Amino acid sequence: MDYLKRILNARVYDVAKETPLQLARKLSERIGNRVWLKREETQPIYSFKLRGAYNKMARLSAEELARGVICASAGNHAQGVALSAATLGCEATIVMPVTTPKLKRDAVAALGGKVVLHGDSYSDAYAKARELGDAHGYVFVHPFDDPDVIAGQGTIGMEILRQRQGEIHAVFVAVGGGGLISGVAAYIKAVRPEIKIIGVQMADSDAMLRSVRAGQRVELADVGLFSDGTAVKLVGEETFRLTRELVDDFVVVDTDAVCAAIKDAFEDTRRVLEPAGAMGIAGLKSYAAQHGLQDKTLVAVTCGANLNFDRLRFIAERAETGEEREALFAVSIPEERGSFKRLCQAVGDRNVTEFSYRISEERDAHVLVGVTTASRADAESIRKSLEAERFSAIDLVDDDLAKEHLRYMVGGRSELAANERLYRFQFPERPGALMRFLTSMHPNWNITLFHYRNQGADYGRILVGIQVPDGDAHAFQAFIDGLGYPYVDETNNRAYRLFLG
After folding, report:
1. SS3 state of residue 115
2. What is the number of other CB atoms lying within 10 angstroms of the CB of residue 67?
3. Same domain, 417 and 398
4. Closest CA to 249 of 291, 218, 217, 278
5. Residue 60's domain is classified under what CATH number?
6. Do the Cβ atoms of 41 and 137 come closer than 8 Å?
7. Most-buried pick from 8, 77, 111, 129 (CB within 10 A)?
8. Which of 180, 313, 201, 328 has the alpha carbon at shortest distance from 259?
């Protein structure tokens, strides 16, 4: 009841706004439940953190504000403190891990905060901020382990219940240090205790879950940095107490699942969330699948959208795997004429996302194949089709080495690739175009290198190494001209000669 009063009297709306609770129509249809998104990424700093920071700082005395404030943050709390300081007329020093995205560092500086970079995680920055605060007399504004900060975040729970007065089965909240879920749970459990509160943690940053299971706070030796907003080694004392008492369950998600959730959010809102911001959606999907939920009302807090643009490529590539929309195989085929064509026929008219091959030995060829799938069962069907052609197929969908590195590597030099010609082609990205290219090849022309990746663009790009007998030069030229695809002869390319030729 103390937190209920704190939340009802929280001072957040001088700077924060009441954010929409929006129905995610596409996601709802896909998973068979009514999914609502609490759009905290629409706040002025694109994160919920403004609520708690301002509620804490607005209650400081004039003398405390005159001394200045300091905080440690991976970025979003930092922006909340910086904007609150500018609004209240005080100075703010922000200690951030060196791994903090540049977008967040620049945003803090633009709001007038003094940025100090230190350490690789929030915990490292926290120790430095405490040291500087003691040395200079700054007031420390904790990002999560403070009753006023927790109460500020709790206004999100208050808004959810005001905006959705009907049935709610569960609310899904990303967990780092625990401030957000503590505040949301404190309000909802006081008013509507039947609603489940589900915490969502990254598999490589699950300090809160481990602490709850152990019955005491557990400090992680290291944390993953993909979701920098929840990369916390040690949760707070107060947040641990509240979470242990009020949170009903936890879901652990991985990088691929979060990337898929970012895509889900974009398709419904046209907003690109940061990893921490999409964790609630990822957890909601996982929980609904695990428990067979149907026709339930589920709420996910989308808590942030401060994402560096250069991370979009990685997220887009991993989203398909996270949604089980892509299968990735290492396929071994006999190094003989016709095998490549049989492989293409086994794949069929499915949408190919990746096709990489480099001649390497006389007996067997190894091809990396990515294919769009409707489900994990579809991937198994493809594997059986490949094995029916007597090809060895290894499923790599759970192999991080393959997904992060091998799929971008096309081998090296090969003694078997003598007299190789290298061509780069561009063709309309439509079903069947890649297979048309492959099946048009003359059987006497040996493919020594092949690389293709679906980039999601209107045009696909292929790199092909081919051995063409001297007597077939005119026929080969007629073939590539007849395809009607733009091409470039890269046989004398310096990079090719250095690494592959």
Report:
1. strand
2. 16
3. yes
4. 291
5. 3.40.50.1100
6. no
7. 77
8. 313
pLDDT tens digits, 113-140: 999 999 877 778 889 999 999 999 999 9
Give how many domains the chain has, as a whole number: 3
What's the token pair of residue 308? Answer: 């560096």
Residue 90 belongs to domain spanning: 49-140
Q: Do residue 11 and residue 96 come from a single domain?
A: no
Angle at 317 between CA 314 and CA 320, to 5 degrees: 140
Q: Which residue in 34, 12, 32 sits closest to 24, CA to CA?
A: 34
Measured CA to CA, the distance from residue 125 to residue 129 in angstroms comes to 6
Whether the Cβ atoms of residue 204 and residue 223 lie closer than 8 Å to each other: yes
Q: 480: helix, coil or strand?
A: helix
Contact status, residue 465 vs residue 446, Cβ threshold 8 Å = no
Q: What is the CATH number of the domain that holds 349?
A: 3.40.1020.10
Cross-strand pairs, 489:
423
Choose among 122, 116, 117, 71: nearest CA to 228: 122
Measured in Å, how far apart are the chain's first and last C-alpha atoms? 73
**410, amino acid identity:** V
Model confidence pLDDT, tens digit, residues 269-287: 999 999 999 999 999 999 9
Query: Are 42 and 93 contained in the same domain?
Result: no
Q: Show which of 320, 342, 361 is a domain's final residue.
A: 320
In degrees and rounded to multiples of 5, residue 353 shows phi and psi of -100, -20
Do 158 and 133 lie in one domain? The reply is no
Please state, in angstroms and rounded to a whole number, the distance separating the CA atoms of residues 76 and 24: 24
One domain for residues 102 and 157: no
Read off the tokens for 102. Answer: 């540049």
The residues pairing with 95 across neighbouring beta strands, listed in sequence order, are: 72, 116
DSSP 8-state secondary structure symbol assigned to residue 195: S
Tokens of 119: 């350490």
User: Of 123, 140, 157, which closes a domain?
Assistant: 140
381 and 287, same domain (yes or no): no
> Quick one: which of 211, 214, 184 has its CA closest to 198?
184
Q: Is 129 found in the same domain as 166? A: no
Give yes or no: residues 262 and 374 share one domain: no
pLDDT tens sequence across 400-457 = 667 665 666 656 777 788 788 888 887 766 666 667 777 777 777 888 888 876 655 5
Report the phi/psi class of residue 416: left, alpha or beta, with left for phi > 0 and alpha for psi in -120 to 50.
alpha
User: Is 209 buried (19+), middle (13-18) or exposed (0-12) by CB count in 10 A?
Assistant: buried
Residue 75 φ then ψ, to 5°: 150, -50
